[in-house]
Amino acid sequence: MSTGLIFDGVAGSEAIDTSGEKLVVRGADCSDWNTPGGIPFNWEHQGTDKGPDTIVGKVVFLKKIYSKDDCETDRQKEYWEKVQMPFIYVVGRLFDCAGHAGAQAIAAIMRDNAHHGEPLMCRLSVEGSTLVKEGPELRESVVKRIAVTIKPANRTATTGLLEDPGAPSGFEKKHTKEKMKDLLDFDDAE
């Protein structure tokens, strides 16, 4: 049985985004990630009202990281070194191996970037509801979806490949030395 492309990254951080807003990570309710409905990935902020074609994957692991001490894996530490501020770390699975055409297109973009040693063009952007906003700070919010996007408002929202079991011949299938079991340690996840 083949699973879809597995990637990780920064879904959001406390960096000021291009619209002048700042997500307060501690106040972001991300609890839906570990429910049966989960937190889906959509393409470029397209809502579910446009149909199931817009849902291209799902979050399989999420953890809020407030400091380097919160990092439990080398991957989380790598992202901390890049971001150097509180962020929401996610591991996601695309629906590419299940035949989802949109997810297959995203997987192809990510795969091609990785193959050529380039930063991944497909990055992330949190979506949901703002409950409390003070000035530019989104003090309390609820994360309902995460967009896979080419131009995230939060420029720290980077991604990387972990596994690509559906990769065609000539492309890498494993992109990390860490075991998936270790990356998906759910014990202390938020």
Task: Give an overview in words.
- The radius of gyration is 16 Å and the shape is globular.
- The relative contact order is 0.28.
- The two termini are 29 Å apart.
- The protein contains 3 helices and 9 strands, in the order βββββαβαβββα.
- A hairpin with a 2-residue loop joins strand 7 and strand 8 (137-149).
- Strands 1, 2, 3, 4, 5, 6, 7, 8 and 9 form a 9-stranded mixed beta sheet that branches.
- The chain has helices at 74-83, 101-115, 180-183, and strands spanning 6-13, 22-23, 28-29, 40-43, 55-65, 87-94, 123-134, 137-149, 159-163.
- With 190 residues, the protein is of the alpha/beta class.
- Residues 186-190 have low confidence and may be disordered.
Can you give keywords for this protein?
190 residues; alpha/beta; 3 helices; 34% strand; disordered C terminus
| Strand and helix order | EEEEEHEHEEEH
Radius of gyration: 16 Å
What characteristic shape results from the CA principal axes?
A: globular
* Unreliable spans: 186-190
Kindly estimate the percentage of residues that lie in beta strands according to DSSP: 25-35%
Describe the largest sheet: 9 strands, mixed
| Count of β-strands | 9
What's the mean pLDDT score? 91
- Give the distance, in angstroms, between the N- and C-terminal Cα atoms: 29 Å
Briefly note the structural class of the backbone: alpha/beta
